[in-house]
Amino acid sequence: MAHEVKTITLFGVNCYLVKTGRGYVLIDTGWPFKRADLDKELKSAGCEPGDLELIILTHGDFDHSSNAAHVRDRYGAKIAMHRREAEMVEKGDMMLSRKNRPIVYRIFFGMVKLYGRLTRFDRFRPDLTVEEGTDLSGYGLDARVVDLAGHSAGSIGILTGDGDLFCGDLVMHDRAVPHSLTDDAAELKASIEKVKGLGVKTVYPGHGSPFPPELLAEL
């Protein structure tokens, strides 16, 4: 059975609402200052409190995770993410799953602190952690988790049985370029190579439009 995917783009960040045979799964949650827009989009899609079974986060950066606690409280869904990202959202520190901490990260997060609205971070503890191969069928979604480290240590993708890959910040936009904020370039390259062998039909990035996997060929 094919899943229905609704893309919710909030200030350049994609959240994906996947309709299953028994409810919904939300992949990533967007910026905190776009919370009201997220609520409106969920409601317009027919997702009401009690309908959302799972919130799964591709990684812990605040532009993807800041509304997770709010959505959990409002809709009664569990939050899942990789264990290596959990400390980030518990402490509100985006550097905690970065081992190399390149200068570009330090500059970026230093700039972020200049804008108070971007530093609002609803800290939370995930309800469950996932890893390579975790089966999501128990939440109505025919999909499994794929480890895609590189952008951060615990970055993951969600690969459905239909061949849809929600890859977070593995690559950016429909040009399929590696994310400019990369913690470990070697790990990112290995993750991209891994995706090439997964039989993916469509890649759904965290930023930009979905694209065919052939665009990854030269990366």
Structure description:
By secondary structure, this protein is α/β, with parallel strands linked by helices. It has one domain (4-216): 4-Layer Sandwich (Metallo-beta-lactamase, Chain A), CATH 3.60.15. It contains seven helices and twelve strands. It has helices at 35-44, 62-65, 68-75, 83-91, 103-112, 116-119, 185-196; strands at residues 4-10, 13-19, 24-27, 52-56, 78-82, 128-130, 143-147, 156-160, 164-168, 171-172, 177-178, 202-205. It has a six-stranded mixed sheet with strand order 1-2-3-4-5-6. It has a four-stranded mixed sheet with strand order 7-8-9-12, with no helix packed on it. Strands 10-11 form a two-stranded antiparallel ribbon. A hairpin with a 4-residue loop joins strand 2 and strand 3 (24-27). The model is unreliable at 114-119 (pLDDT under 50).
Features:
219 residues, alpha/beta, Metallo-beta-lactamase, Chain A, 4-stranded mixed sheet, 7 helices
Summarize the structure.
The chain has 219 residues and is of the alpha/beta class.
Question: How do the strands and helices of this protein lay out in sequence?
Answer:
Layout: E1 4-10, E2 13-19, E3 24-27, H1 35-44, E4 52-56, H2 62-65, H3 68-75, E5 78-82, H4 83-91, H5 103-112, H6 116-119, E6 128-130, E7 143-147, E8 156-160, E9 164-168, E10 171-172, E11 177-178, H7 185-196, E12 202-205
Parallel strand pairs: 3-4, 4-5, 5-6, 9-12
Antiparallel strand pairs: 1-2, 2-3, 7-8, 8-9, 10-11
CA distance, first residue to last residue: 32 Å
Major β-sheet, in short? 6 strands, mixed
> Count of helical segments?
7
Helical coverage, percent range: 25-40%
Q: CATH superfamily name?
A: Ribonuclease Z/Hydroxyacylglutathione hydrolase-like
CATH domain topology: Metallo-beta-lactamase, Chain A
The beta-strand count equals: 12
Identify the strand order in the major beta sheet.
1-2-3-4-5-6
- Give the second-level CATH assignment, the architecture: 4-Layer Sandwich
Along the chain, the helix and strand elements come as EEEHEHHEHHHEEEEEEHE
Shape from CA axes?
A: globular
Radius of gyration: 16 Å
**What structural class do the secondary elements suggest?**
alpha/beta
Poorly predicted regions: 114-119
Strand content: 15-25%
Average pLDDT value? 88
- What count of domains describes the coordinates? 1
Q: Mind telling me the CATH class?
A: Alpha Beta
